[in-house]
Amino acid sequence: MFQLGKTIVSEEIIENDFVCNLNACKGACCVDGNAGAPVEDDETTILADIYETVKPFLRPEGIAAIEEQGTYIKGEDGEWETPLVNGSECAYVTFSKNGTAKCAIEEAYNQGAINWKKPVSCHLYPVRVREYTQLTAVNYHRWEICDAACSLGQELQVPIYKFVKEALIRKFGLDWYEQLEQVAKEHLRQ
């Protein structure tokens, strides 16, 4: 672990490679698991504000789940998260013809309907951020459903921190990311 400003960062995001391989996993991270995607406090307002615009991009099951539970919910850990459809996939998930999970929020963003890509936790994945009183932890979340992404990342030689560059800049800023790049160069020289 190393410290960058008010963050503690795991070396794993430098040492491990990762590139999403949707052909292999079919977006399983949006479907598997026992909770919705983490949502930051300021994102709760955004989810509520964009719902009517995103609604046409959603599946009927997603609309029903959101209208029953809300655009975000309080998880068992006391944190905000996206609602689920019948305790399974994220309510904001849609599926392509080949069964690959896609994000309706991101689809609305890609089509210019909204100017917000998706929750930052989704954008950052497989990096997970945990806020503490004094510091923020930045860690790699290993999940066997992403084994194909690890293999593709190794094949293409793309470390995790480079794969999620845009999301890390979105979360922590360009200066922070440039400091991370410098630390990564020094770390890999050792």
UniProtKB/TrEMBL annotation:
It comes from the Bacteria. Belongs to the Rv0495c family. This is DUF3109 family protein. The lineage of its organism: Bacteria, Pseudomonadati, Bacteroidota, Flavobacteriia, Flavobacteriales.
